[in-house]
Amino acid sequence: MPSPDNLQALELDAVLAHSHDHVVIADQHGRILKASESCAGVYGLPLQEFIGASTYDLEHNGVLSPSITVRVLEQRRACHVMQATLTGRSVMASAYPVWDGDRLVRVVSLSKDMTDIRSLQREYELLHRQLIAREAAPATALDPDADIPTCNPRMREIVSLLERVAPTDASVVLLGETGVGKTRIAGLLHRLSQRSNGPFVEANCGAIPDTLFESEMFGYVAGAFSGAARNGKPGLAERAHGGTLFLDEIAELSAQAQTKLLRVLQDRRVTRLGSTDVRTADFRLIAATNRDLEAQVAEGRFRLDLYHRINVVPVTIPALAERAEDIPLFIQRMLHQLNTRYGQDKTLAPETWSYLLGRSWPGNLRELENYLERLYVLAAGPTISPGPTTGAALDAEAGQKTDREAAPRPLHTLREAVETAERECLQAALSRCRSTYEMAHMLGSSQPTVFRKLRKYGLAIDTDPAA
Ligand SMILES: Nc1ncnc2c1ncn2[C@@H]1O[C@H](COP(=O)(O)OP(=O)(O)OP(=O)(O)O)[C@@H](O)[C@H]1O
């Protein structure tokens, strides 16, 4: 029979190994002496790194915020807080001082992961709000949690700018790398505008062949040209009447198309091809591009007068790399969306969190979203580990390194190397996909980008409705 002291230690170990709640015992300096095994998942650190760590350091490094142990040490009484963790979880923490006479010798904290309950609450609140919004006046503010989750100061300023500009009729140009969320923000601007009951018409300028621009923008009547739809067709400008016209990839418009667009923006009236009837096209314009529009103007590729007309409020959306603190928020929200879509309740293993947080995301939110979905669908069990996909990606990197070491390739300029790789990727995707949308999904890119690149390399997809 073990001694009473040993028995107590065994009992405590059993509690720590099996407790569903997270138990942490720290000394009077805030150093963690013992922790339940469940802490690794919620705080995203292996248990052996967690034990021995200083709670002051963990708080400073954002692993948990605020530290309940630090509070108890400062206030010398029991405390209760909601904690945010680096893994994006919301934890309800309570901690208690342990006294030896009048000396505070330990702090014991007990926490419960409330993330799922909170996201259910948020989902309920969101649904409730949507229900009310449908019956009442249009929404007037962005919901940072539901619409643009961010804890980045610059992004917060952008959200506040978007809120101020949304109800006005000012033209907005959304600038930023591919996949940062420009299209989504255009939709939010419409939702918050005075025109939210009107249509939101979206067009990808990069996918409209120059020869079809006029018929797409102004529409046409029956028999206007060979191949025209039998009953004619309203153009984008006409369809957007009373609402918002969102022109994505606006920098891809040819000089001719730019002139035609300028005309409709000045006149706010259109005449369908083959007709003489003049129709009003009263819409609010939102444009987007991942190119440097000012540079395009300086190089003479984009008309200065059109630039001034559309560029009333330019908004640059920062790349994900410039708001890395938002990545856990997005991972959490995307995981929640995947769980809802697939009717499951999967969670990320701590190593997966570390991997995702340590990786760079040149394709921004779109790449993160696609990558997470791949991991999600490939995970056999309820816990998503880095597993086969990440492993494969790492292997591929390692393989490339071995190739490079074994047989040095002839030197190319960086641009040539990138173009060769791009072309190969596009060709591989072309052989498997039936549309540029499918290709964009597979390649973690956007449809306009895929479309533009196919054109650049002289590659074609036959059955694409958008081509
Ligand atoms: N606030 C957000 N929350 C969750 N997902 C988002 C958010 N914003 C964007 N995404 C996702 O990221 C992806 C890219 O967003 P979006 O298409 O708006 O980017 P974009 O900047 O318009 O890209 P491109 O320039 O290539 O057209 C989309 O699949 C979208 O669902």
TrEMBL record:
A GO biological-process term: regulation of DNA-templated transcription
One Pfam family hit: HTH_50
Chain spans, region Disordered: 388-407
Residues annotated as domain Sigma-54 factor interaction: 148-377
Residue stretches making up the PAS domain: 8-60
Record InterPro entries: AAA+_ATPase, AAA_lid_NorR, Homeodomain-like_sf, HTH_TyrR, P-loop_NTPase, PAS, PAS-like_dom_sf, Sigma_54_int
PROSITE patterns, alphabetized: PAS (PS50112), SIGMA54_INTERACT_1 (PS00675), SIGMA54_INTERACT_2 (PS00676), SIGMA54_INTERACT_3 (PS00688), SIGMA54_INTERACT_4 (PS50045)
Keyword Transcription: yes
Keyword ATP-binding appears in the UniProt entry: yes
GO molecular function, one term: DNA binding
Domain of life: Bacteria
Keywords recorded for this protein, A-Z: Aromatic hydrocarbons catabolism, ATP-binding, DNA-binding, Nucleotide-binding, Transcription, Transcription regulation
Compositional bias segments (type: Basic and acidic residues): 398-407
Record's protein name: HTH-type transcriptional regulatory protein TyrR
